[in-house]
Write a structure and sequence with these properties.
about 350 residues, alpha/beta, Four Helix Bundle (Hemerythrin (Met), subunit A), Rossmann fold, 2 domains, seven-stranded mixed β-sheet, four-stranded mixed β-sheet, 11 helices, 16 strands, binds 5-S-methyl-1-O-phosphono-5-thio-D-ribulose
């Protein structure tokens, strides 16, 4: 099984996604700052994996806090959390992970500092295990939506690499393949970081799931040719009305899919929901380095003086989304009601 991240006692092992598919190399982080850097540089990426790297990174960081009293411990922990929260703004899983660990820390207010450290480590490891189960459940829930023989378009990487394993959008694809549905996949290369060409293609080849790599601007052509039956993507943040922030280019796919009467499904864990935001307009969109656009593997492809923009995500309005596939079931429009019900059910059953 592909493992994007692993706790190894006194360090965190990350499968370095910047080097894939050419090299399967691991990056060992011995300090939380190395984990912070790995998230910023995208050695590990994808909303759930960013959340898990944050959780394990904080758990690693707090082990080195030298103090006897809880107040100092909480202060130091907050500083560590702040560093993580400055890395990547769009995926809400990051702040969700911080919130989870802070709740555990505050819930142990009468424990010793050593017990606090252990409780945080334990929770972070539990979050990694839970994410794998969640993805398998998303696959199970979403699989019935995939007709036999379906030709599926996916964008970016919402696979094992973007999670603790199995994947969200790619988890549904995996489940349909495992069910013997004879599916095939079109993979958008996903400029500028090439998560589709480098990562999704790598996962699909490894799993021997039939797949064809296309450039992002070919999607409309293949839809017009009647060669795509459905689109399935992951998400970085889903607002209360069902608007979805995901990798830049998803919005264009939403419009194309609607124009061609093709369903677009979004597969995401409930940790990606942000019901505090009424609509997608409030979702912060990360602007990344212009070099990602002007260079490919260090080779400049654009003139020096050209102005560049590099928003890493866009927001697909809920009206372009046919269904949201979560570990708690499939939510159909109108999303506000369905999302509220899922959040309530989760609250009742989990607390
Ligand atoms: O910039 P990235 O590679 O972190 O963006 C990843 C995506 O947009 C994924 O589609 C999303 O996080 C879902 S991953 C299960």
């Amino acid at each position: 099984m592909i493992k994007s991240i692993e706790w190894r006692g006194n360090f965190i092992r990350i499968l370095d996604q910047v080097r894939l598919p050419h090299e399967e190399r691991y990056l060992d982080c011995f300090t939380y700052r190395e984990v912070v850097a790995a998230i910023s540089r995208m050695n590990i990426r994808g909303a759930p994996a960013i959340g898990l790297a944050t959780a394990l990174g904080i758990a690693l960081g707090v082990q080195s806090i030298c103090c006897q009293d809880q107040e100092t411990f909480y202060r130091e922990m907050d500083l560590i959390c702040d560093e993580f929260s400055r890395t990547r703004p769009t995926a809400v899983n990051l702040s969700w992970a911080i919130k989870q660990l802070k709740e555990v820390a505050r819930g142990h207010s009468s424990s010793s500092v050593a017990e606090l450290k252990e409780a945080i480590r334990h929770k972070a490891l539990e979050m990694v295990e839970a994410d794998l189960r969640t993805n398998q459940e998303i696959g199970r829930q979403g699989e019935p939506l995939i007709p036999p023989g379906a030709r599926i378009l996916t964008h970016c990487n919402a696979g094992a690499l973007a999670t603790a394993g199995y994947g969200t959008a790619l988890g549904v694809i995996r489940a349909a393949h495992e069910a013997g549905k004879n599916i095939s996949v079109y993979v958008d290369e996903t400029r500028p970081f090439l998560q589709g060409a480098r990562l999704t293609a790598w996962e699909l080849v490894k799993e021997e799931i039939p797949a064809t790599l296309i450039t992002d601007n070919m999607a409309g052509y293949f839809m017009q040719q009647g060669k795509i039956d459905l689109v399935i993507v992951g998400a970085d943040r889903i607002a209360a009305n069902g608007d979805v922030a995901n990798k830049i280019g998803t919005y264009s796919l939403g419009i194309l899919a609607k124009a061609h009467n093709i369903p677009l499904y979004v597969a995401a864990p409930t940790s990606t929901l942000d019901l505090s935001l009424p609509t997608g307009e409030e979702i912060p969109i990360e602007e990344r380095s212009h070099e990602e656009v002007t260079t490919i593997f260090g080779i400049r492809i654009a003139p020096e003086k050209i102005a560049v923009a590099n928003p890493a995500f866009d927001v697909t309005p809920a009206s372009y989304v046919s269904a949201l596939i979560t570990e708690w079931g499939i939510i159909y429009p109108p999303y506000s009601e369905g999302l509220r019900k899922v959040a309530q059910a989760k609250l009742v059953l989990c607390c």
